[in-house]
UniProtKB/TrEMBL annotation:
Signal peptide: none annotated. InterPro entries: SET_dom, SET_dom_sf, SETD3_SETD6_MTase. CDD domains: SET_LSMT. Residues 30-270 form the SET domain. Coiled coil: none annotated. This is SET domain-containing protein. GO terms for molecular function: protein-lysine N-methyltransferase activity. Transmembrane segments: none annotated. It comes from the Eukaryota. GO terms for cellular component: nucleus. Gene3D superfamilies: set domain protein methyltransferase, domain 1. SUPFAM superfamilies: SET domain (SSF82199).
Length: 481
């Protein structure tokens, strides 16, 4: 690792050396090994049955000592004995107190210790060698600009763009926080001899995103060797991961799962993750995936909305909406859309409040009820007599946004294959476009049905002046726009 101008990436250890590392550090394998499947070497290393395995009759397939688990708690313990690690974690402040921040800083330090050009930094740990077994992950943040252009019109394109911007901000923040530390200034940031690059920061981010699992009692963590297992969803998942009463990481064969020698032992990274998230975090899509599953689309408050500045100031919700597909049915959820669907005439109001330090804040109110969290807005609206009207407005807003996304996907076609574009990004981009387009078209049709149903509501009919009472007198129409 840390060779300026290098193309070869970090220092690597052959996967054949992993059993020796595992045995030396107390990782126990039972009827399994880590390696590539014959004929599928391009998929990299995975967990393979070393003999016939019978579900319900096997001891844990793998036991990983708790002190090898890369978790925030363990990193804090390690920092007590490693003043270099402690120094950096304290320097980066709140970021170092998050699990992701602590893990990324820890991985960077382990790579620093492993660098042959750097001596006397950090405390050697078994994980200093383990990171050399981890392959580079071809996540979209490592795609070329030409490859990322293939994603135009998909929800992954803005997600990757935002992620790269976020990573750059993090990298510069870490540099600013640590460049006054002598050894960091010398080994990481020196203009001539510094070794740490933005590409290295992208790499540790990719390692964490693609390998972190939520372990019971531990939270998000990387568990060496268990993180070598590939993903399979639903009934095809072969094994489960958990911790024992001592906090050790376990890999357990599922009851009823029988695997012949040479078969793959898979785990799940999360069955509910959509196509976009799978590519974003793991760089792959299952061959059996036939639906995008979940899509998040952004929403914006129209410029012509006179309350736009105030709404943006008080908003506490994610500015968008999520659509999900399960068993062929589309559902949607959003806290933000309700803020777009109402106005001052409905009962939304804003007031200025003076804080104790002399600053001015905007307070939101719904019919004299303080709205300190916009995620509560739906609850207020559900209790209002015009709830059906607000639902109709929300559905119309979502339908319009979906139509825009569908139109973009249809208009922006996949270009002809360029020799410089790798097969992985080409295949993934094409599949994602098709999956998202199909699901968005279904969502648009479902929302049209919802709109038709809500439109028949007596409340909506009266609001629009279309309801005729028994006396035959039409109510005065209301401008629905």
């Amino acid at each position: 690792m840390f060779k300026r101008g290098r193309a070869e990436g970090w220092l690597r250890q052959p996967i054949d050396a992993l059993p020796l590392w595992a045995d030396f550090h107390g990782v126990r394998f039972n009827g399994i090994k880590v390696g590539s499947i014959p004929g599928l070497e391009d998929r990299g290393s995975t967990v393979i049955a070393d003999r016939d395995l019978t579900g319900g009759k096997e001891d844990p397939l793998m036991v990983v000592p708790k002190d090898l688990i890369i978790s925030r708690q363990n990193i804090e313990i390690i920092a007590k004995a490693d003043h270099h690690l402690k120094e950096v974690l304290e320097a980066v402040g709140d970021f170092g107190r998050t699990t992701r921040g602590a893990v990324l800083i820890y991985l960077v330090l382990q790579a620093t210790i492993a660098c042959p050009d750097i001596n006397g930094i950090g405390v050697l740990h078994p994980l200093t060698e383990y990171i050399k077994f981890l392959p580079d992950e071809l996540l979209p943040t490592f795609w070329t600009e030409q490859e990322r252009d293939l994603l135009t019109g998909t929800t992954l394109r803005p997600a990757v763009r935002a992620k790269l911007s976020s990573l750059l901000r993090e990298f510069e923040a870490v540099r600013t926080a640590t460049e006054s530390i002598g050894w960091c200034a010398k080994h990481w940031w020196d203009e001539d001899d510094g070794q740490l690059t933005f590409e290295d920061w992208m790499r540790v981010d990719a390692i964490y995103r693609s390998r972190a699992l939520e372990f019971p009692g531990v939270g998000d963590a990387m568990v060496p060797c268990v993180d070598m297992a590939n993903h399979a969803s639903g009934d095809t998942t072969a094994a489960l991961y958990e911790t024992d009463e001592k906090g050790n990481g376990l890999l357990l064969l599922r009851d009823g799962k029988n695997i012949t020698k040479g078969g793959e032992v898979t785990i799940t990274y999360g069955d509910d993750k959509g196509a976009c998230e799978n590519i974003f975090s793991y760089g792959f899509l299952e061959d059996t995936m036939t639906s995008a599953k979940t899509i998040f689309l952004d929403l914006d408050i129209p410029i012509e909305d006179l309350l736009r500045p105030a709404k943006m100031a008080v908003n506490t919700a994610a500015p968008g909406f999520r659509i999900s597909e399960k068993d062929g049915h589309i559902d949607w959820e959003s806290d933000f859309v309700w803020l777009l669907a109402i106005n001052q005439e409905d009962g939304l109001d804003f007031k200025l409040k003076q804080t104790i330090d002399g600053q001015t804040e905007i307070e939101a109110f719904w019919k004299d009820q303080e709205l300190d969290d916009t995620s509560k807005l739906r609850t207020f609206l559900e209790q209002d007599r015009l709830w059906d009207v607000y639902q109709l407005r929300a559905v119309v807003l979502l339908q319009s946004r979906i139509e825009t996304q569908v139109q973009t996907l249809r208009e922006v076609k996949m270009p002809e294959r360029d020799p410089s574009i790798r097969d992985g990004p080409w295949q993934l981009a094409g599949r994602l476009r098709n999956l998202e387009l199909e699901m968005l078209e279904k969502a648009g049709a479902d929302l049209e049905d919802q709109k038709t149903t809500i439109f028949q509501s007596e409340v909506v009919q009266r609001y629009l002046g279309l309801f005729q009472d028994e006396a035959g007198a039409d109510e005065e129409p209301v401008d629905f726009s």
